[in-house]
Amino acid sequence: MVAPLIELQSVSKCFRAQRTRQETWAIRDVSLNIGEGEFLCLLGPSGCGKSTILDMLAGFEGPTEGRILIAGEPVGRPGPDRGVVFQDASLFPWLSVIDNVTFAPRLSGVAPSTYRAQALELIEKMGLGGFENHAPYELSGGMRQRVAIARAWISNPRILLMDEPFGALDAQTRLEMQETLLAARGQAVSTVLFVTHDIEEALFLADRVAVMSRRPGRITLDIPIPFPRPRCYEALIADPAFSRLKQDIVRILRQEIVARRETDRA
Amino acid sequence: MNEGEGVRRLVLGLVSVTSVTVAWESAARYGLVDPLFLPPPTEVLATAVDLLRHGYRGSPLWVHVGLSLGRALVAFVAAVIVGIPLGVMIGISPIFAGLIDPFVQFLRPLPKLALIPLVILWFGIGEFSKVFLIFLSASLSIVVGAAAAVANVRRQQIRAGKVLGAHGFALFRHVMLPQMAPELFVAVRLSLGIGWTTLIAAEMIAADAGLGWMAVNASAYLRTDIVMLGIVLLGLTGYVLDLAIVGLQRWVTPWAGRS
Question: Contacts of residue B157 in chain A, CB cutoff 8 Å?
C-alpha cells in the first residue's frame, strides 16, 4: 500500500498562556492519515483544535508531542507547496487582485511571462474576470475569498489547507463558493484539508469527514463520504443517505456535548 | 470621507475662520482691547506687506520663512531616514529594544529647551545646532511610532506572506513594510507637529533670521504686530506641511483605513 501523503502520528499540542503560564492542550493524541488527492473535511465545534492541526501542517506551529510527516518528511517552514486559505481572505490590501494572485511566483523571481497567462485564467475560472486591477477593498467578502483561493492555487500546491474559508460568508454566497471550489478543483487533483464547523458543507465537499471532539481535540469519527462526483447540491440534500449521514454526525456531536456536561458536573 | 462631507467641512472651516477674524478686527477697532496687546488683522496684513518690501532686521520676509522651512525640512528628512529604521529595529528585535529604548524614553519627554546649552557647547551656534534640535525631537517621536507600527502588523498577514514564500528580508520588504506604511505616515505627521514646535527653541540659539527668531526678537521691541505675523506664518506653514503629508499619505497608501 502506498504511504499516505500526510501522516499525523499521536500528535498533541499544548499552548502555554504567556502571563499565567497555564497550560492548555489544544489537541491530544491525534492520529490521522490523508491520502494523495483526498479531500478531507475536519469537522468540529469552535475551539476543538482543528485550526491547530492546519497551522501545524502549514508549518506555523510545531507539535508538542508526536510527529507530523508530509510525503514521509517532517513539516518544513511555510511555503507555496502547501497553499493556505484563511477564514478572512488575508489579502494584501496594497496590491491589486492580479498582484495578490501572482505574489508567490513574483517573489520566486521567475519571468512574468511564465505565470501571467495562468493567473488571468485562474482569475477567470474563479469568476473574477475583469476585476484583475481592482483593489481588495473594492471587492465583496466572497470575491476576496476567491482571490485568496486563486493566490494559493497558482503555485499548484500539492496540498491545499483551508481554514473555514467560507465561514464568514452568507449562505447563498457560501454555496456558490463551494461549487466554484469543486468545479475549479476538477481534474487537478490536489490534496485538500478543509476545516469547518458546518456539517452540510463537509458532506457536500469531502471524500472523507473526520469529526473532532471539544478541547482537548480528539478524532471521534472518521467516515468516507460515498457520494459520486460531480456532486449537485440540490440532488444531494434530497438523498436519504445524505440525511442519515448528517443525523449520525449530529448525534455524535450531541453525545459529545452531553458527555462533556457530565464530566464537568462530576 | 465622501465629497459632500469634504465640501461641508471646507465651508464650515471658512465660516469659522472668517467669523473669528472679523471678531478680532472689531475688538481692536472699537477699542475693546489695546492694539498693543492684540493688533487687528488689517494691521498685521499691513506689517506683512511692509516686511515683504523692506524686510525685518536686514532680511526680507520670504528669507525668514524660507530659512525656517529649510531648517525644519532638512531636520525632518534626517529624522525620517534615521528614525524609521531605528524604530523598526526596536519593534522587531527585543534585544535591540532593551538596549536602546531606555534612552529613547528618557529623551522623548525631555523639553528640548533644556538641551540648548549643551547643544551650543557641543556644536556651536551655527545652523547645525538648530537643525539638530529639531531633528532630535522629530526623530524620537518617529522612533516610537515606527516601533508601534511593527507591533501592530497582523499575525495573519505575516502567515499569509510566509506561506506564499516570503521569509526574512522579503517578508519584511513585501509584507511588513507596506502594512506598516499607513502607521508610519501617522508617526511622521505627529513628529512634524512636534518638530515644528521645537523650531522656536532652535531659533533661540543665536539666530539672526527665521520665523521663530523674528517673533521672539520683535517681542523685545513691543512690535506685537510682527509677533502676531510670525505666529500666523508659523501656524500657516505648519498647517500646509501637515496637508502635504496627508496628501502624500493618500497618494502612497490609498488602502489605509479601508481594509
Answer: 90, 92
Selected for mutation to probe chain A from B154, B156, B159, B163 (highest A CB count within 10 Å) is B163
ipTM score here?
0.87
Q: Note the pLDDT of residue B15.
A: 95
Estimate to the nearest angstrom the gap between the alpha carbon of A27 and the chain centroid. Answer: 17
pLDDT digits (tens, 9 = 90+) for A145-184: 999 999 998 988 999 999 999 988 888 889 988 998 888 7
Residue B95 structural domain = 38-252
- In chain A the beta strands, taken as DSSP E runs, fall at 6-16, 23-34, 39-43, 65-70, 73-74, 82-85, 159-163, 191-196, 208-212, 219-224
Residue B72 has pLDDT above 90, yes or no: yes
Q: Please report, for residues A55, A140, A141, A148, A205, the alpha-carbon distance to residue A165 in angstroms, rounded to integers and kept in the order given.
A: 14, 14, 11, 9, 13
- In 3D space, the residue among B173, B165, B178 whose CA is nearest the CA of residue A92 turns out to be B178
Residue B4 in domain:
no
- Describe chain A by its helix, strand, coil percentages, rounded to 5: 40, 25, 35
Output DSSP code: residue B242.
H
Q: Tell me whether residues B178 and A94 touch, CB distance under 8 A.
A: yes
pLDDT in tens, B103-150: 998 998 888 888 888 998 999 888 999 999 999 999 999 999 999 999
pLDDT of residue B171: 94
Please indicate, yes or no, if residue B216 is contained in any of the structural domains: yes
* pLDDT per position as a tens digit, B167-207: 999 999 999 999 999 999 999 999 998 888 888 888 877 78
Mean pLDDT of chain A: 89
Do B159 and A58 count as a contact with CB atoms less than 8 A apart? yes
For residue B115, give the C-alpha cell. 538641551
Taking a contact as any Cβ pair under 8 Å apart, which residues of chain B between 221 and 240 contact chain A?
none
Residues of B whose CB is below 8 A from A88: 156
Q: Which residues contact A82 (CB under 8 A, 6 or more apart)?
A: A57, A58, A59, A70, A157, A158, A159, A160, A161, B163
Q: Is B2 inside a domain boundary?
A: no
Q: Residue type for B182, please?
A: P
DSSP-assigned letter for residue B35 = T
What domains can you pick out in chain A, each with its CATH number?
Answer: 37-62+84-265 (3.40.50.300)
pLDDT at res. B250? 92
What's the burial of A41, exposed, middle or buried (CB within 10 Å: 0-12/13-18/19+)? Answer: buried
* Residue A96: count of CB within 10 angstroms of its CB: 18
| Least confident interval from B60-74, B205-219, B230-244 | B205-219
Q: Can you give the CATH number for the domain in which B74 is found?
A: 1.10.3720.10
